[in-house]
Amino acid sequence: MKKKVLLAVSLFHSLNDAATITVPMVFPLLYSQQFIIQKYYHIGILSYLGFCMTFIFHLIVANFSDKFDYKYLILISYLGICLSLLSITFTSVFAGFLLIYLIFRAFTSFYHPIGIAWVSKTHPSRGIDFAMGVQSGSGNLGVLIAFISIGYLAQNFNWKVPLITWAVAGFMLGSTSFFLVRKTLTKSEQFIKPDLASWIETLKILKIYIPGFIFGGACWGITVFYAPSLLHHKFKIEMGKTGLNLALWIAIGTVTTYLFGYLSRRFGRLKISLFGFTGTSLFLFVLGTAAEPVQAVIGLLCFGGFLFLTYPALNSYVGNIAPLKNQAQAFSLTANIQVLTAATGNLIAGFLSDKFGINSPFLFLGVIGVFISIFYLSIRSKLYVVS
Question: Which of 7, 309, 313, 368 places its Cα 20 to 30 Å from the Cα of 254?
Answer without folding.
Answer: 368
